[in-house]
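ok posting inputs for the adenosine-5'-diphosphate job
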Amino acid sequence: MKILVLNSGSATQKTSLYEIAAAPPDDPPAPLWEGLIEWQSGFAEICTSSPAGVRLKNRIPIASRKYVTEQLLTDLSTGAAPLLKSPSEIAVVGHRIVHGGGEFREPALVTPRLKDVIRQMSEFAPLHNLPGLEGIQIIEEILGNTPQVAVFDTAFHSTLPEPAAVYPGPYDWVARGIRRYGFHGINHQYCAERAARLLGHDLQSLKLVTCHLGNGCSLAAVRGGRSVDTTMGFTPLEGLMMGTRSGSVDPGILTFLLRQDGLTAEQLDDLLNKKSGLAGISGISNDMREIVSAMKAGNPRAKLAFDIFIHRLTSLIGSMVAVLGGVNALVFTAGIGENSAEVRAAACANLEFLGLRLDPLRNSQPPSDRDVASSDSHVRILIIRAQEDWAIARACWALALASRSV
Ligand code: ADP
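and the output
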């Protein structure tokens, strides 16, 4: 079964093609093909590759997003080594949808009603849901009746118990859907399952803290394969310090700024989402690599940014461990989690009281899915590569099998 996966954001659209035959392999395979569109003003940069190397690199004017996506997909069935005889070989198309609200707890076939829900939920996550919905509409136009599946970043956290999900605000917030949803669920779930496999344990028996540290950062407390707490909430702004997002701040600061500076909602949104976090504190960059190198060169604001990041990471990992009542393994994933030995070392040093010990040599070796704890550590420490597209392809395959309608 050939499965196309679209991960549509406001600035980029990542696309992958996977093939799953009788059953998904235990270890994630490389995609047959990957495509990336970077949306720039007036132009789109397109790049596609397969395991054999780069296939297409092009810069084209954006006549429409549909036109650009069509150009990208044409590469699958043209060129010196076409991967498809025709686009109709694609059996199903999976989409990453950030916000599924309270209703969608599992991957679901796209129907007119599901599109309505995605649209409604875009009120909560406009930057994230609308590009996903547009991706679905474009594929409908290009591939006609090919079944499409939405896989939600909120779904894995639908198991949050009420005390973790409900904000202690006025009770009518609950009826209005103002509650904690959590995000990055596709990757938190994938990492929990992968951790169980790497550890050779049944997922049901494990208490895990998964640390998704990329441009956006969130933690999940996973007990028996179910998310029981997470650091992002109503929006992907709550919790840890991030590249350009503040994470949790005293809500009193917001009312203070509204009154004192007369900020509009848009200005406040911009401040918290784009001018804060590593970039806001350091004044240098949202990129952890640049923060670490400036810190090493003696820049005090870069050091402060790094120290706040680690302080908040440590304190929220502690909070997840407390909710779980212990932890068998800590998982680091996504850009910073997979690649920054400095971040892993600093966070783990603060957590040694849990009986957790990082092996400095293993921690400094190049990333792949592996255990970097020392052999005497009471808690395993894993690095797991984020594989959201593969997780979406697997979910599409499972849904196709279950529904037989795909
Ligand atoms: P996204 O959340 O957009 O998917 P990624 O998971 O790709 O982002 O993470 C992006 C971040 O990963 C970058 O901003 C950068 O800070 C960090 N990163 C990537 N490589 C490294 C590295 N070698 N060392 C430290 N940080 C890294």
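notes: The mean pLDDT is 94. The two ends are 10 Å apart (CA to CA).
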